[in-house]
Write a structure and sequence with these properties.
The chain is of the alpha+beta class. The chain is built from 7 helices and 6 strands. Strands 1-3-2-4 form a 4-stranded antiparallel β-sheet. Helix 2 crosses helix 4 and helix 4 crosses helix 5. Bound molecules: zinc ion (ZN).
């Protein structure tokens, strides 16, 4: 019974092959960047993080974009192997595009892309079309330091700073004055003394 034997053999090989096959992780369908930004306008972006080619200068209308959920480690690793990087999450992408639309009246792909790139590079919404790069990072850091320092509020005259030899008062949420609380939290000297 050569026919029956052959059938049996074939069935076994298929079964064996199924056991040996290691399925690659399901890769999401790419979305053209232009389409994705269009969908962001109507808040229809799929959940997850937007993966785009590492080099933002190469982003354009036909760039293949992927939305990958943050718990999909396999896909993240594969995206990185493909030269992609994580940029912003879907919600933020919608915020970027809708801010560009409502504040700057942006309705073009170029404008949306500019807003996305600006946010990706500087972690801030595009302030205007053709905006120059923000100040160098140390100026930004200094500004953030100042904001943090100011946020500490007034020092209490009746509660002395715990730092030995410091004659200042402690701020409300701390046993230290503004200067020493800053150093405690930021692990570097405080650039302010007022
Ligand atoms: Zn102090």
């Amino acid at each position: 019974m050569p026919f029956a034997t052959g059938t049996e053999y074939r069935a076994i090989s298929v079964r064996t092959a199924q056991h040996q096959v290691v399925l690659p992780p399901m890769w999401p369908t790419p979305i053209k960047l232009a389409d994705l930004l269009e969908r962001a306008q109507s808040r229809g972006v799929p959940r997850g993080w937007l993966y785009l080619p590492d080099e933002w200068r190469a982003w354009g209308t036909d760039t293949e974009a992927f939305m990958i959920e943050s718990d999909e480690d396999d896909r993240e690793a594969e995206a990185e192997q493909r030269g992609y990087c994580s940029t912003v999450d879907g919600q933020t992408l919608e915020d970027i595009v809708s801010a560009a639309h409502s504040v700057l009246k942006v309705d073009s792909f170029d404008g949306r892309l500019e807003a996305l790139i600006y946010y990706y590079r500087f972690d801030a919404f595009l302030p205007c079309r053709g905006a120059p790069e923000p100040p160098p990072s140390d100026e930004i850091l200094l500004r953030l330091d100042r904001e943090f320092y100011n946020s500490l509020g007034a020092e209490r005259a009746a509660v002395p700073c715990r730092e030995p030899g410091c004659g200042r008062g402690a701020v409300e949420p701390s046993v230290f004055c503004k200067v020493h609380h800053f150093q405690q939290v930021r692990h570097r000297p405080c650039p302010f003394a007022d």
